[in-house]
């Protein structure tokens, strides 16, 4: 009898395994794509915040543990312009922007050539701090990977997104940073243990939060494959190509602010017409600007339609042709909550409008510096708890070894073919609990 049971079990198991192999590629790809989505992100500042050597406070282990109890999806974000990089071939440190480069800007780099000379003066003023500070992208890589490694030590399954630095208001010169940002991706990879790179690094984040045009830069909606003739989109695409070459995800969290303006329209074209980003997580901006009363509803509409839409609900560019997933950013600030009695109501608008999307579409929290993030960590936990929760699979309870059990083998479904392997036998089993 035992021999018959063993033969039947082997036959059924083999059938299931064959079916699983036939559909293995599809299942793996779908799972990978889903796993790379940011469902419960949190922005965590790291590195320099100004140009006098000031750095963001390094989180304590206790602070990191509190954060990891709420989410294991962390974006390690710099805010300063890192104007230097080290040439990998010569070892020589180079600057991206110099006054000579600004002086030699050609007219066709800007949106309105008639403002070129004034723009040069403006850019020299903006770039003076970054040029003097001389921050190297390797500085960010060291700070961010050190913090990332600490997070991995505290939670071996933590999901990390590293980041490009910003070009700030140097709009028409953003394309000049592209090579150093592409190099940054390789530097992060080289700095990390290969296992951490493969297991814990889920992707990268593009930290410039807008595509400003006006008189500063051109943007041609009819040329998505040519980066819309825009320097910022050019840099986005260069980094995207590098990130995707390593099979990592690339995300962007642009602000919406004036949903009637060209900056919002530009982000719509990038999200709707290109696959530069795997996810675009839009800032409603309402928490910090009480005049933007309709923004959470507009961004909710974007998430529902899975396309960036205008205030009337119309898709920017008429149709969405990209695979980019649209999400929303949660915005909260402990100081704002304390100083403005209406801030709590504005935050509640986010909760009300986005609670149905938790765990379904990508999102991330902006909660200021780490100390203020800890001050509102309970609110973040409450919101993320509204979504589907991970549950631990527990096997059947222990049963007495004299209990008769019926064994039903799995149903394997793939490619429209159903393989049913089932056998009913009476056996004596000792079942052990698993966790």
Going by CATH, the architecture of the largest domain would be: Alpha-Beta Barrel
Helix content: 40-55%
Q: CATH topology of the largest domain, which one?
A: TIM Barrel
The CATH class designation of the largest domain is: Alpha Beta
Quote the average pLDDT: 86
**Structural class label:** alpha/beta
Poorly predicted segments: 1-31, 391-435
Beta strand % = 5-15%
Tally of separate domains: 2
What sort of overall outline do the alpha carbons produce when their principal axes are compared? globular
What order do the helices and strands follow?
HHEHEEEHHHEHHEHEHEHEHHEHHEEEE
For the secondary structure, the number of strands is 14
**Contiguous helical run count:** 15
């Amino acid at each position: 009898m035992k021999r018959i049971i063993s033969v039947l079990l082997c036959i059924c198991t083999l059938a299931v395994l064959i079916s699983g192999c036939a559909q293995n590629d599809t299942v793996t790809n779908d799972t990978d794509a889903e796993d790379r989505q940011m469902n419960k992100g949190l922005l965590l500042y790291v590195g320099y915040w100004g140009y006098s050597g000031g750095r963001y406070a390094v989180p304590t282990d206790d602070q990191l543990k509190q954060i990891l109890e709420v989410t294991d999806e962390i974006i390690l974000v710099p805010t300063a312009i890192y104007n230097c990089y080290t040439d990998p071939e010569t070892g020589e440190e180079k600057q991206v922007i110099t006054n000579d480069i600004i002086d030699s800007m050609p007219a066709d780099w800007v949106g309105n050539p008639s403002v070129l000379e004034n723009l040069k003066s403006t850019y020299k003023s903006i770039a003076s701090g970054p040029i003097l500070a001389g921050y190297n992208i390797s500085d960010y890589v060291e700070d961010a990977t050190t913090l990332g490694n600490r997070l991995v030590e505290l939670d071996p399954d933590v999901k990390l997104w590293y980041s490009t630095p910003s070009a700030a208001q140097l709009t028409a010169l953003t394309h000049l940073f592209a090579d150093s940002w592409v190099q940054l991706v390789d530097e992060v990879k080289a700095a990390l243990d290969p296992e951490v790179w493969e297991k814990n690094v889920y992707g990268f984040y593009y930290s410039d939060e807008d595509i400003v045009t006006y008189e500063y830069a051109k943007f041609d909606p009819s040329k998505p494959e040519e980066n819309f003739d825009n320097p910022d989109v050019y840099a986005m695409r260069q980094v995207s190509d590098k990130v995707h070459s390593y099979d990592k995800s690339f995300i962007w969290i642009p602000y919406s602010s004036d949903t009637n303006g060209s900056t919002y329209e530009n982000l719509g074209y990038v999200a709707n017409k290109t696959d530069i980003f795997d996810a675009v997580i839009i800032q409603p901006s309402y928490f910090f600007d009480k005049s933007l009363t309709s923004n959470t509803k507009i961004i909710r509409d974007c998430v529902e339609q899975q396309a960036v839409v205008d205030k009337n609900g119309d898709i920017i560019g008429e149709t969405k042709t990209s695979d980019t997933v649209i999400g929303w950013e949660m915005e909260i600030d402990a100081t704002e909550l304390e100083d403005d009695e209406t801030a709590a109501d504005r935050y509640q608008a986010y909760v009300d409008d986005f609670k149905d999307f938790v765990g379904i579409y990508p999102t991330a929290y902006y909660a200021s510096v780490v100390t203020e993030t800890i001050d509102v960590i309970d609110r973040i936990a409450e919101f993320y708890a509204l979504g589907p929760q991970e549950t631990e699979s527990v096997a059947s309870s222990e049963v007495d070894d004299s209990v008769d059990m019926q064994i039903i083998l799995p149903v394997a479904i793939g490619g429209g073919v159903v393989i049913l392997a089932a056998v009913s036998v009476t056996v004596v089993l000792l079942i052990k609990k698993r966790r």
